[in-house]
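User: Can you predict the 3D structure for this chain?
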Amino acid sequence: MATDNARDQMRRQDMLNALGEFLFGFAVILILSAEFLFLNMLDDLVFHSGAPFTPGWIVWILLILVVTVLVCRFIWIFRHGSDALSHLRDAASRKRAKRDRILFVLCLSIVLIATYGVRYASRSASMHGEQEKAQETIGIISNAFEQAGFYVIGADAADVHDAQGYTVYCQLYADDWDNNSEACMSVDNEGVVFEVDYHLDIQRDLTLEENLEQAQSDLDRMHEVVQSLVIPLEVPGLATYAEIPAPLRQAFLSGSVYEEIIMNPDELGSSDGAYISGAFWTSDEEDWSDATGAHLSVDLTSDW
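Assistant: Here is the predicted structure, written as structure tokens:
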């Protein structure tokens, strides 16, 4: 009877050990998964990688498989018993077992962190090179517009890396708050211009025809600088197109300075690879403010 009780007690202990191994394995998988998620978020938000880091995924999956296999092996041992491995029953109750488990988890975490550490070092060097390319193009744009008398506002790519690119704002009349026409040029991290937007000021004290004539004159002055730039362009049309699209003209002349207009490339088409969008942004007469005003927008982009 005593032997049977001892055997039952050992069997219950083995079941508890098996349950403990399962919970331990589950906890390790959760820890590795949380670490993996954090490292990927860091890769995307800080190092702007964009594409998934395939080696990181592979290492994470392999670590999960290692944990799963080891845990299943220990569970099998405790469930079926083994005289050759009977020492495992004792080890589970020792302090050494706890220490070994902690070291095991730390080793797995270090492997995953080291994998992403290599990735981060590589991306850091790449980001620095991208910033230099973008800053070179931004510098050319800024200098050209400043020499033409424009007031230039733009992000400094040398200070911060922006995964979305950088925009240079070139205002035609820096000291004239009644006219805020401007050209906006967007540069990606390869130093290539991928979008050019023209914002053409509209005054409500002028007729529609006078506003349209002034807007085209502003556009011509800004485009003169744009087409003179020797910089990489995603498509030629970003520098060659220089007019207010006819459908946008007609819609503007058919409305009033208080009626908004929005047109996309399906309506305005493209030119030399650049997709054309147009709009007239304004306010209702009772909500009109000289501070915000109204403007025609001609946007050229390489993607639609």
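Helices lie at 2-45, 54-80, 87-91, 95-147, 208-228, 237-240, 246-254, 265-268. The radius of gyration is 33 Å.
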